[in-house]
Prior knowledge:
Layout: E1 23-25, E2 31-35, E3 42-51, E4 56-62, E5 65-66, E6 71-78, E7 84-90, E8 100-107, E9 112-115, E10 119-120, E11 123-130, E12 133-140, E13 145-152, E14 160-161
Antiparallel strand pairs: 1-3, 2-3, 3-4, 4-5, 6-7, 7-8, 8-9, 8-10, 9-14, 11-12, 12-13
Amino acid sequence: MSRTLDPRTLKPARSLDIRAGLLIPIKSRGVETLKSPDGRHDAVLITVGEIRFGPVYCELKIDGIAQINRIFGEELKWSPDSRFLAVEEWLTTDYVSGPITRAAIFDLEAHRCTALKPAEKGFCRDFHFEDKTFVYKKNFKGLGEIIELEVDLGSVSGWSRFTS
């Protein structure tokens, strides 16, 4: 039996139904803090679980603000000017239907965030910023396909405020 978890109702791994053996609780929660290049901001990834035979998934705090009801992978990157933070967001932890991930971008100056188009059966990787452009790859391991994408940050839509 497998099921797709709704990130809006996701609880730490110790509370998840793991009878199907698809999700494995993490006994000691790993915490990784990444400072922005200018040292004014920090992003904290807190490991809450892992997919069977797969990667870990995390909670995220940005400058102490928890991004509730969302889960993230370990891929993240600050822009050189510390304004933007890009993070791989997971839309499911279901072993069968996943991975489904997308790049989420946080604008620390405007206190807003947006998410780019999901990678169905793939991971979003290799984030970097070039001037006003966000560059990343969608890696579809099962298909043996990697697509590199460039996004003009000035033309991104769908921004919303992020708060705890």
